[in-house]
Amino acid sequence: MSFMRQGHIIRDFDPGRGVSIATLAYEYPSGFLIPEHAHGSDQFIYATRGVMEVHSDQSLWLIPPSFALWVPARVRHRIRMPAVVSMRTLYLRPGLVQRADSSCAVLSVSPLLRELVVETVRIGKLRLRMHEHCALRDLTVLHIGRATPIPTETRLPRESRALAVAMRILDSLPQSPSLETLCGEVGVSARTLQRLFSKDVGVDVDSWRRQARLTRAVELLLAGDSVKQVAFSVGYNQPSAFVAAFRRMFGFTPKAWVERVSKA
């Protein structure tokens, strides 16, 4: 698969005349990078297997098969495959799905929505003149519009040293290296690093790390991991400390929050 020049609008996959939804199914090898680009259509990007790492401007999302990414038309993004990914993408005429999101949003994928996406991709293109295609389109559009947004965005700093520290933090959440260690690895003073984070993402390093932990925790909780497993996976020594931090950010305990999202 080839992509057009970096940053340009790609229209190859947009729905053509008489088509409401076009699709793409593709198997990506581990380490594959789709460079920054945008499409002329709205996108619903879903992986039936594997995890996608998606960047758009300063935002980063890790998207497992329980989630999908909504990308409005003309929004630039790039996608990296940390491992093998089976991607299934819908390209929809702008305005067909009614969502309040003006930028990218991670959406929870229900079992029904998953099957609707898989069937749409199997058909390839949903044509306006075919009644069964229109019925499938209407159901798919309805459930994309109703899908629950999930707060899994991590905002990254732009400055190279601050970005290197941010990526190191994300790669080592369970170990939680100290600020002094991180600064030593990158070659920047703690004071300078704090200033860079405050300028680029609006919070200090420790606050950013807490947000990153809880963002990753949401992904793991919705993947079915226990509260105890998640707490240790994102760097908390005590599950009770994790539960308290989660409640402060989301207003509910992890278990109660997952139950509310699952019922939405």
Q: Can you tag this structure with a few keywords?
A:
single chain, 6-stranded antiparallel β-sheet, 24% strand, alpha+beta, 2 domains, disordered N terminus, 264 residues
Mean pLDDT metric: 90
Helix % is: 40-55%
Determine the structural class based on helices, strands and strand pairing. alpha+beta
CATH class of the largest domain: Mainly Beta
Overall spatial form: globular
For the termini, the CA-CA separation is: 37 Å
Largest sheet: 6 strands, mixed
CATH-defined fold name of the largest domain: Jelly Rolls
Rg from Cα: 20 Å
What is the domain total for the residues?
A: 2
Question: Can you tell me the CATH superfamily of the largest domain?
Answer: Regulatory protein AraC
Strand content: 15-25%
Give the neighbour order of strands across the main sheet: 1-3-8-5-6-12
Task: Give the total of beta strands.
Answer: 12
**H/E element order:** EEEEEEEEEEHEHEHHHHHHH
Low-confidence stretches: 1-7
CATH architecture of the largest domain: Sandwich
Per DSSP, the total helix count is: 9
How would you describe this protein?
The chain is globular. It has 9 helices and 12 strands. The protein has 264 residues and is α+β, with helices and mostly antiparallel strands. Strands 1-3-8-5-6-12 form a 6-stranded mixed beta sheet. Strands 10-7-4-9-2-11 form a 6-stranded antiparallel beta sheet, with helices on one face. The chain has helices at 111-123, 131-146, 160-171, 179-186, 190-201, 205-222, 227-233, 239-250, 254-263; strands at residues 9-10, 19-28, 33-39, 42-49, 52-56, 59-63, 67-71, 77-80, 85-92, 105-108, 125-127, 154-155. Helices cover 41% and strands 24% of the residues. β5 (52-56) and β6 (59-63) form a beta hairpin. α7 (227-233) crosses α8. Mean pLDDT is 90; it is low at 1-7. The chain folds into 2 domains: 9-146, Jelly Rolls (Sandwich); 154-263, Homeodomain-like (Arc Repressor Mutant, subunit A).
